[in-house]
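ingest -> validate -> predict -> emit
validate: passed (alphabet ok, no gaps, 658 aa)
predict: started
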Amino acid sequence: MSMNTVKYILIPTLIVTLFSCQDVKKEASNYAEISTAAGGKWVENEYIGNQGFKNLDYLKVPQQHTDHSYFIRYEGPGWESDKVGYRLYLDWRNAIDVFGKKTDQIVLEGVGQDGFDSYHEMQDWGMDILKVGNSLGLGSFGRYDGDQLHHFKKVDSTLVSITNETGFSAVDIDYFGWTTNGVVTDLSARLSIKPGSRITRVDLDRSQTFEGLCTGIVKHNVDFISTHDDQKDWSYIATYGKQSLVPDRLGMVLFYKTEQVEVIKEGLNNHLVVFKKEPKNISYYFAAYWEQEPGGITSKEDFVKHIDKQLDKLQISMARKSMKLDVHKIQNKKGLSIEVLNLGGIIKSIKTPDRNGVLGDVVLGFEDPKDYLEEHPYFGAIVGRFANRIAHGTFTLEGKEYSLAQNNGTNQLHGGLLGFDKVFWEVKPLENENGIQLSHTSKDGEEGYPGNLSVTVDYVLTDDNTLKVKYQAQTDKTTVINLTQHSYFNLSGDFSKQILDHELLLNADQYLPLDNTQIPKGNYQSVVDTPFDFSTLKTIGRDIEAKNEQLKIGNGYDHCWVINNLNNEIVKAAEVYHPESGRTMDVYTDQPGMQLYTANFLDNTLPSKTGGTYGPRTGFCVETQYFPNAPNEPSFPTTILKPGETFTSETWFQFSVK
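emit:
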């Protein structure tokens, strides 16, 4: 039987979004504000008699305001993540400064409340760490006419608005009548940041095109780094060295679209990126890395390594820009349905009935397919070439050492920067089954792996409410392979609820204990008398907070169980039951391992399908797979695939009620 329903949705790829909210909770990890003095009066260009500051959602900048007028707290709008803070001088200078943070807490609300100078000295939270002078600072904008840099000395009016939402904060600035050397234009700028990121995205929209729009990084006597390459979509300029006001090590980077840039220029006070006359809209990114921030970068080598990874992510996003995002729907005779994206083979939804016959979606993810183009924790995706972790991003095969992209500390996780979760798969309906087949070829050397690897994944939906996932792969060079399906389940269908009340049974007498980097130690550990014993049904939450070193390492369950399956047959590996809804899910597989992950690191930054955000432990993953780091552990079941061989595997998810 062919597919019952197939839907196609054409959606342009986004490159990175970082974005919006007016009421910010204290536990938020992103924040923006503009705060002005109140209770005083203007005396020429100085505000006298301030009785305290008031935060605003919107401000039209008074004509009297200029630098050091004591009207705007810390002289302009500020925005921050849990990593770093920034501010823009909202006067003729229009430069961007950096607040180095020694904490992961939101701090801007308190900065400068006791006066305008305290943040220039080290505080418990950190300090203003950048000497801006007459430069653009980091990532601000101006106009370079070939002779000099023009700031914002002549502007008819300036409007500022603030947006704070779960998942991003933004400052929007509209400049009207900006005049530079005979050119008069309006310019809109958005500066936005995401939690967990140091990166600010800048979006500029000018009312007319003109030559010389530019950005840049302040010049200090430190190392300058540049990767401008006309053959690549993105490039960067960066500086690194002892250039903070402390003084200590500070790295700054500016990422730009290569095709939009006219020239990289050395100005008097800035390393400048000068944009072409066209287009009117320009987007770029900047970031600062201070050595005193938690887990701070302390060497040029590590700084370059980190920003090169960020550059790779931008290249990947740009490469997907022209791809079409499709949604495929499969439904059986009983009304159970799944939706699958051609991006990453992502299972977008599984709608299955509860004991009362009410359909509910039981997998976490996003309502809008476009959201899957942004960074997320592998919601619903096919994971490969190698699921889970490979220690130090290296392995040796047939006497040759292979180095992989490291995207999880020093380890590789789930196939690297461009794993199977991020590629677009070819999709076609199956001829003799109710389902679809996804196919993809991973090129030799991709993410560091040898061999051209051709992979197919079948999603088959049967009329007994079983979703069968069938994997097959072949290679032209000896390689390693480990594939899994990374859906996050919550059988309640209410993603505001945690899954700790779900009852779980695992057909496993042993699990793999981890070291502090979440790499298996190499031995098997009995589950008897440990929190890892799910040999009979028990709630996931019963022992998850137990005092146990392994639970501490994973911040909960994030471990691989050794399935009782000596003959590599398809066996029942897990049973999950949600008492309130009556929904059950039985998992069958021929794989030797199953990674149970209880979504310990979901942090309320991603929007939920059912409203609100995804918090810790609002989902669980049961990832059937070979063992983590198997290429480096000879005693583990082999993951080697040779030319002429065919890798096959199946996992079934069977839904019912009781």
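Residues 1-26 have pLDDT under 50 and may be disordered.
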